[in-house]
UniProtKB/TrEMBL annotation:
InterPro entries: Cation/H_exchanger_TM (IPR006153). The chain crosses the membrane at residues 6-24, 31-48, 60-81, 102-135, 202-230, 250-277, 300-319, 325-346, 358-376, 388-408. The lineage of its organism: Bacteria, Bacillati, Actinomycetota, Actinomycetes, Propionibacteriales. Coiled coil: none annotated. Residues 15-413 form the Cation/H+ exchanger transmembrane domain. It is found in: Cell membrane. GO terms for biological process: proton transmembrane transport. This is Cation:proton antiporter. It comes from Nocardioides faecalis. It holds the Pfam family Na_H_Exchanger. It is a multi-pass membrane protein.
Length: 430
């Protein structure tokens, strides 16, 4: 019965994913908002009795489903970015200047501010730091309304992508992996007293080595697969000529698995793999075909999770929410992230005007990645297994979906040039 219910919910989510984008295109309502509302409605009916939604009892399942959703999204994000990152060229690094500012300044500021706010509200240091780390990354899954539409290939290829959307997209692609060192810091604090933690070792391994390993494995996998797909001497291996877009799934699973086996961050491995693959034969339409596959799978997984999250909201997920959780969640969305983003972009030479920089600072969408980090950390340390954390993160994700979803369409139409659909040469959903 439970399995049948899961199929029914997944089918309903897929149907809504097909019809909602066109229906909601001209309204200040996002697809995630509608799916959350549908999930809440389903949760109030007896149809969802028995669905495994308790986050403490089903932590492992939540971890693995959200993990898969994030790596699929990261592959799509890496393939969607048209601006190359050439590691040996200083000009290429400068072209990503806004991204580095958001990662190196805004994200640590967000983590620190949420941690301090949590401690000031009476939350333990390890719990507060985990909350800050889990909520710090912007989400590549739920932020599609403010990100690039997809790779521009063939006759639609351009040299200068929209800076606002590029910054939000590239930030979301990288900060999922870069939040991990802080998650591990919270785990170490929960397992040891502050004085027993080897912070130098933490920085060397979790802050540097695992980042380098993840990126290195991703680049290696991306180069190998790109060579096989585009330039292999064997016709049977040149899958780009046949348009075999399922290579995207093979790439993301291989990069993630090998990066994790090597001890690196798999999230960074997937993103680096996608970026490396995208750099090969940049104008080839095969990139658009691969992106379409990842985008559709991401949409199915995301909307299924949103429906389940909505059901959980009406079935006790927020039972342990208190004023501290509300203060931290709304404080992050309305004050901490915008202030951190504005601070990070001060003096930026990206070419964005003040309203566009403000939009980048504000649209730090929280979502599926936060649920993953929370589930992962609780699996590593039982001391962090707290229903209050689930209530707080669930509330924050929901508030982000509603606030950012309602404002994305009107704000982006006002401050950002309208981006054309790379496949059809028209505005997305138009």
């Amino acid at each position: 019965m439970i399995a049948d219910l899961v199929y029914a919910v997944a089918g309903a989510g897929l149907l809504l994913a097909i019809v909602l984008p066109a229906l909601l295109d001209r309204w200040a309502v996002s697809v995630p908002m509608v799916l959350l509302a549908v999930g809440v409605g389903l949760g109030l009916t007896p149809l969802t009795d028995g669905l495994p939604i308790d986050p403490l009892d089903h932590r492992a399942m939540i971890e693995h489903v959200t993990e898969l959703t994030v790596i699929v999204a990261l592959m799509g994000v890496g393939l969607a970015l048209d601006r190359p990152l050439q590691l040996r060229r200083r000009a290429s690094w400068r072209a990503w200047g806004s991204t580095w500012r958001m990662l190196g300044i805004a994200m640590p500021l967000c983590i620190g501010a949420v941690t301090l706010l949590g401690v000031a509200a009476g939350v333990g240091l390890a719990t507060a730091l985990l909350l800050g780390a889990a909520l710090a990354p912007t989400d590549p899954v739920l932020a599609s309304d403010v990100q690039v539409a997809g790779p521009r290939t063939g006759e639609h290829e351009v040299d200068e992508p929209d800076e606002l959307r590029f910054t939000l997209t590239s930030e979301a692609g990288l900060n999922d992996g870069l939040a991990f060192p802080f998650v591990y810091a919270a785990i170490l604090l929960a397992q040891h007293s502050r004085g027993d933690v080897d912070w130098l070792g933490w920085f060397a391994w979790y802050g540097v080595a695992k980042v380098v390993l993840g990126v290195a494995v991703g680049i290696a996998v991306g180069r190998l697969l790109a060579y096989l797909a585009f330039r292999s001497a064997s016709h049977s291996l040149r899958v780009a000529e046949r348009g075999e877009s399922l290579t995207a799934l093979a790439a993301l699973l291989t990069a993630y698995g090998l990066a994790e086996i090597a001890g690196g961050y798999g999230f960074l491995g997937v993103f680096a793999c996608a970026m490396t693959f995208r750099s090969a034969e940049r104008s080839h339409d095969y990139h658009a075909a691969m992106h379409e596959v990842t985008e559709r799978l991401e949409r199915l997984l995301t909307l299924f999770l949103l429906l389940v999250l909505g059901i959980a909201l009406s079935r006790g997920l927020l039972a342990h929410l208190d004023w501290r959780g509300v203060l931290i969640g709304l404080g992050l969305i309305l004050v901490i992230r915008p202030a951190s983003g504005v601070t990070a972009l001060l003096g930026s030479r990206s070419g964005m005007d003040r309203p566009q920089r403000a939009a980048v600072a504000f649209f730090g969408v929280r979502g599926i990645g936060s649920l993953y980090y929370l589930a992962y950390a609780m699996g590593e340390s039982s001391a962090l297994a707290s229903p209050w954390l689930w209530s707080t993160v669930g509330f924050t994700v929901t508030a982000s979906v509603v606030i950012h979803g309602a404002l994305a369409t009107p704000v982006m139409r006002r401050v950002a040039p309208q981006e054309l659909d790379p496949a059809e040469g028209r505005p997305p959903g138009g």
